[in-house]
Amino acid sequence: MRVPQSHGTSRRTPVGANMTPMIDVVFLLIIFFLVSSHLARQENHLPLELPVASSFDPMDPEKMPLTISVDSSARILVGGNVIPVSGLKPIFADLVQRTGSDAAIRIRCEGRVQYQYVEPLLREAALAGVTDAAIAVREGVNP
């Protein structure tokens, strides 16, 4: 930015940056992260009776996988919204576009849900290029 020169006058006006737009952007970012973190926590707290496993690998805290839930009625939920299997393709495509080879999903499903309802979800993920899929379980011993 070019500062205008005053010819022959001894009064100088101070030059400064207007901080208002930057403060607005910071507040918008804070609101965005608060809302997105609330939605992520909400997805992880859907009341599902997870299957029990005697051994499992803990989730890597560095990765933030897309959480997909399958309830007792075999409905697929992404972000708390019921999604048909055909609606998973654009969701997985967006995930792969945003995260590339690090694309990961985590499937939370009721322990009583049969594999025939989970398999189409895994197939769509594989076709979209998502190779990191984990199924959430709770620790314990199978009855």
UniProtKB/TrEMBL annotation:
Keywords: Cell membrane, Membrane, Protein transport, Transmembrane, Transmembrane helix, Transport. It comes from the Bacteria. GO terms for molecular function: transmembrane transporter activity. InterPro entries: ExbD. It is a single-pass membrane protein; Single-pass type II membrane protein. GO terms for cellular component: plasma membrane. One of its GO terms (biological process) is protein transport. Its main location: membrane. Pfam families: ExbD. The keyword Transmembrane helix applies. Belongs to the ExbD/TolR family. PANTHER family: BIOPOLYMER TRANSPORT PROTEIN EXBD-RELATED, EXBD MEMBRANE COMPONENT OF PMF-DRIVEN MACROMOLECULE IMPORT SYSTEM. This is Biopolymer transport protein ExbD. It comes from Rubripirellula lacrimiformis. The lineage of its organism: Bacteria, Pseudomonadati, Planctomycetota, Planctomycetia, Pirellulales.
